[in-house]
């Protein structure tokens, strides 16, 4: 039985590596990190950006996807942003926030003279309205992030005061993502729940139309405060899950930018004289989410899941021990990503270290022993939901071959990404490929997902010890102490085996060489505010 399973792994690996460039040279050929292109550009024109999936709702309060964040980067600015070096900087805010000595009162000064895409003026009332909506709207994906805010109010035309129920160190980082996106109060009042189809923010481009599964169209916003720096007339975002198709369209000139390009496509692009590569390290992670208690959907109290994986942590540990992270990286990604076994990237503002960051090696014998101790019938049947991209399909195939040897029968169900999000949020799954683009502050990689009833805790994980560490990490300002807290938190999360971290992507973006002004930072977003054609 063991010999047959090993052979099946080998067959899978040969199949997946056929036709690919050499693994040894692939990483070195990409070269160093390249985040920006500062060549001068002309005014006018349209660029088309290919995304690897269709974004979910274009509503900052409800949205969950990286591809959605890339679209938002073109039309919805935030109170704060990160720069090329990963430093938090003001965007819609006039300066970094000030915090009282006790850490409980935060004051945000809002820039004056700015206008939403629908002509409404940006002021402190508009900011408070959006922040309260992010915190309180039923189903909000921002609720956990802003839960520490006891009161949010405008205390002047351009001053917002946030009173916290405890010191909350990650707040500025939280306001540098969707929780800090400010929506037109006029549009919110007019469209309500249908804001997603009529989004209006402050940004270089404004929303024109969305054709589901085909395109999202933005046009230059004449209301934008720095419109002179915006060169393009329009930006079109098209979901194209297949990397080969994205690359073919880049070669033909039908696309100008390909987002989240797979390593095999990056290798091909490097041979093309008309294409250029941008890349940066990732703040996020990719892994496998396991349903351990999601019986009633997001935000609800965890319940009992009557499956071998849901009932017994030994079965989950056995599943993880059957996985070889290094081999997945080499076979599927040509060694161009990084194996990972925790939620916090080394690129994070507070990166834990030590033994908690050492990934467990594959141990089939121990996995089999754990299954025997758990008293489960083998093979343990599991369904893995993946997105429909070829890369995720290959990850699923390699996992399928690996875990079979340990006593698992893994079936694969490729699912359109938005549908997979809806189903996993509702708890309708065994395991699924779960990823996150990452945040500069480590809290952004843990609280939403690992806190009991967190806004994006699709796993149904509920552990008071983890909750306590999350609360401590949010409240302690000293970087060394925070690093120690997140080191312990990483160990606790790994012991729960509810989210098995596998690898960290590098952000690879391929673009036509006649386009410049593109920016790609560690948060994985493609910024096109200053993009344009060179001729």
Give a verbal description of the structure.
A 7-stranded mixed sheet has the order 8-9-10-1-11-19-12, sandwiched between helices. It has a 6-stranded mixed sheet with strand order 14-18-13-17-15-16. The chain is of the alpha+beta class and 535 residues long.
Put the structure in a nutshell.
By secondary structure, this protein is of the alpha+beta class. It contains 18 helices and 23 strands. Helix 16 packs antiparallel against helix 17 (464-475) and helix 17 runs antiparallel to helix 18 (479-496).
SS-derived structural category: alpha+beta
Characterize the quaternary organization of these chains: single chain
The major beta sheet can be summarized as: 7 strands, mixed
Instruction: Please report the number of helical segments.
Output: 18
Extract low-pLDDT stretches: 1-29
Strand order of the largest sheet: 8-9-10-1-11-19-12
Compute the number of strand runs.
23
Distance between the termini: 62 Å
> What is the mean pLDDT?
90
């Amino acid at each position: 039985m063991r010999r047959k399973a090993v052979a099946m792994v080998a067959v899978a690996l040969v199949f997946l590596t056929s036709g690919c460039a050499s693994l040894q040279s692939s990483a070195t050929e990409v070269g160093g990190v390249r985040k920006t292109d500062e060549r001068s550009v002309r005014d006018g024109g349209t660029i088309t950006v290919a995304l690897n999936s269709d974004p979910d709702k274009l509503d900052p309060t409800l949205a969950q996807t990286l591809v959605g964040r890339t679209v938002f980067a073109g039309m919805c600015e935030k109170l704060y942003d990160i720069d090329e070096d990963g430093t938090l900087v003001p965007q819609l805010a006039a300066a970094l926030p000030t915090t009282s000595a006790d850490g409980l009162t935060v004051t945000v000064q809002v820039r004056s003279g700015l206008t939403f895409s629908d002509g409404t003026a940006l002021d402190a009332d508009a900011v408070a309205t959006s922040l309260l909506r992010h915190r309180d709207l039923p189903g909000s994906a921002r609720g956990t992030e802003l839960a520490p805010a006891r009161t949010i109010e405008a205390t002047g035309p351009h001053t917002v005061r946030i009173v916290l129920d405890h010191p909350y160190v990650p707040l500025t980082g939280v306001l540098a993502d969707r929780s800090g996106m400010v929506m037109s109060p006029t549009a919110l009042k007019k469209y309500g729940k249908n804001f997603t189809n009529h989004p209006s923010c402050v940004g270089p481009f404004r929303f024109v139309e969305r054709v589901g599964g085909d395109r999202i169209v933005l046009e230059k916003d004449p209301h934008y405060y720095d419109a002179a720096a915006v060169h393009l007339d329009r930006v079109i975002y098209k979901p194209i899950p297949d990397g080969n198709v994205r690359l073919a369209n880049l070669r033909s000139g039908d696309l100008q930018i390909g987002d989240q390009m797979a390593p095999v496509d990056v290798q091909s692009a490097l041979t093309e004289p008309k294409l250029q590569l941008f890349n940066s390290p990732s703040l996020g992670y990719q892994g496998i989410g396991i349903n351990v208690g999601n019986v009633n959907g997001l935000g609800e109290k965890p319940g009992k899941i009557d499956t071998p994986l849901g009932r017994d942590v030994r079965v989950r540990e056995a599943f993880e021990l059957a996985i070889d992270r290094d081999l997945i990286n080499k076979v599927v990604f040509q060694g161009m990503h990084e194996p990972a076994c925790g939620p916090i990237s080394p690129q994070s503002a507070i990166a834990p270290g030590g033994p908690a960051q050492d990934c467990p090696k594959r141990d089939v014998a121990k996995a089999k022993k754990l299954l025997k101790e758990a008293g489960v019938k083998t093979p343990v049947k599991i369904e893995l939901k993946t997105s429909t991209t070829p890369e995720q399909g290959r990850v699923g195939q390699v996992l399928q071959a690996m875990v079979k040897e340990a006593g698992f029968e893994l079936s694969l169900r490729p699912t359109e990404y938005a549908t997979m999000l809806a189903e996993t949020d509702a708890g309708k799954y065994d395991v699924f490929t779960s990823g996150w683009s990452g945040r500069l502050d480590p809290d952004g990689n843990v609280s939403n997902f690992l806190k009991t009833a967190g806004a994006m805790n699709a796993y149904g994980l509920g552990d008071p010890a983890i909750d306590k560490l999350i609360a401590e990490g949010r409240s302690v300002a000293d970087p060394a102490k925070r690093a120690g807290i997140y080191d312990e938190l990483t160990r606790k999360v790994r012991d729960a085996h509810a989210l098995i971290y596998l690898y960290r992507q590098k952000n690879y973006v391929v673009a036509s060489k006649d386009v410049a002004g593109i920016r790609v930072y560690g948060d994985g977003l493609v910024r096109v505010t200053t993009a344009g054609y060179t001729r």
